[in-house]
Amino acid sequence: MHPETLSGLFADAARGVKEDVVDESQSSAPARRKGTFIAKHAVTLGIMAVAGAVLVISLGYNLGSLVQPGSGLWPATLAVVVMILCVVLILVPGLDAEMESHEAVTTWQQWRTLAFAVIPLLLFAPLMVMAGTSVAAALLAFYWLKVLHRCSIRYSLIWAAIFTVAVNLIFILGLGIDLPAGLVFGGVA
Fold first, then answer.
1. pTM of the full structure
2. Are 148 and 170 in contact (CB under 8 A)?
3. Which comes out higher in pLDDT, residue 128 or 13?
């Protein structure tokens, strides 16, 4: 190993991956890449890095308290929860056993489904500013049920309404937090 150079680290990592590949001629089992720690947990480590960045940014805002939450409290709380779940996923053996039993090949269809799930989340914040939290939550729930899960329109509408009522009950009545009404309904930008 050549720890003093970055190229030496990449060369050693490449050799490690090549050594982990099972040769089909040596085994009757199908060839499968066992991978290194980083290769197995790359997505988890990436999510943990994003959560860490969210935590650092949210600590720059006022955290407040549970009774009087500041603008950084909920992003910081969510970031900590995600980081803890990532650590559990990495440290607890067997949680990724199903992943190891299948080829880790991502198909175009899986990337398409992921895009269809993530893009509405990116549009949620601007929609919430324009139309309010209730409308944005209802549209997001309807979209996920109708488009991603291919539920009927009636089923999707009913559960989107139930989800919206639940969000309002939790935040407005339960936590005493006013949700944005949106510019369309007279909210403040």
1. 0.48
2. no
3. 128
Instruction: Check: CB of residue 54 under 8 Å from CB of residue 79.
Output: yes
Specify the pLDDT at position 162: 94
pLDDT recorded at residue 147: 85
In the block, tokens 């309002």 appear at 168
Distances (CA, A) of 25 to 21, 28, 48, 51: 12, 7, 38, 43
Domain extent listing, the chain: 106-189
Alpha carbon of 68 to those of 55, 72, 79: distances in Å?
A: 19, 11, 19
Q: Who's near 48: CB < 8 A, 6+ residues apart?
A: 82, 83, 86, 87
The token duo for 189 is 């930008």
Q: Each residue of 40-63: pLDDT tens digit? A: 677 788 888 888 988 998 898 888
Stronger pLDDT, 119 or 95, i.e. the higher one: 119
182 conformational bin, left if phi > 0, alpha if psi -120 to 50, beta if neither: left
What distance in Å separates the CA atoms of residue 16 and residue 24, rounded to the nearest whole number?
18
